Amino acid sequence: MGRRELPVDHTVPTRGALAAALRELRSTAGLSHDELAARTGVPATTLKRAASGRCVPAWETITAIAEVCYAHQELLLELSMMELGTLWKEARIAERGRLQNLRRPASPELITTPGALSEALVYFYERSGGLPLRRLRELAGGAHLLPTSTAGRIVNRQALPASRQQCVAFLTACGITPHFVQRWADAYDRIIAASRTKAWVPPSDVIAALTILEDAERLRQRAAAHEALRMSDLHRGSGRAARLRAQEVLHDLLTEQRPLREIRFVERPRRLRPRAA
Question: What's CA 61's distance to the chain center, in Å?
């Protein structure tokens, strides 16, 4: 009499649901672990671990089990693979725990930067269960469409797809419907075209800072001949008369560059020193 099988571990509910489905599949086929191992070529220890609920088995293991249990029953096999595929994806998502930390992407028509597109691709990858790269390559149509190394760079946010065709292959492998694949591919084309043709424009705050520096340099050069003007006199001269004189000279220097009505000087209040007791 064989050793009794341990109960399914439901610590991670989605993983436990997948294990229970695999056990039911084997039980319905009336096969023991050893018999299933002999027919699938998968070690019995691997089959037992796959149905334990303590880990997520490889997709190849699930496929082998289903094909043996539903031999010569194509319709049942197809339905079973759809159900197992959903359970496997949910178990992978729970085990990886990364999807919950990613932001759901906006509509592809609102995506305008390479960074936002890269983030969306990673989201779709994790939503597919974080497929092993070899499985992702197969679903994409082969290495000629999506090499494993390229897929790795995309999911690690190190690069975008090299072409529209590769973008379509990646999204298709992640289970995106054809309609949305085309919309995201259009977003890819738009972003790549913009990144190749758009000239670099400094941010407005950088432009403002450069303008201020240029004005300050011109003022310094023009004020060099006016020994009576010291910039420190504008705020802390020897007295009010010195500050007013410095402001008048500065008005004269800036008249050509700025209208007088744009220049404002504020008299700082004097700080009162505490009297000694």
Answer: 31
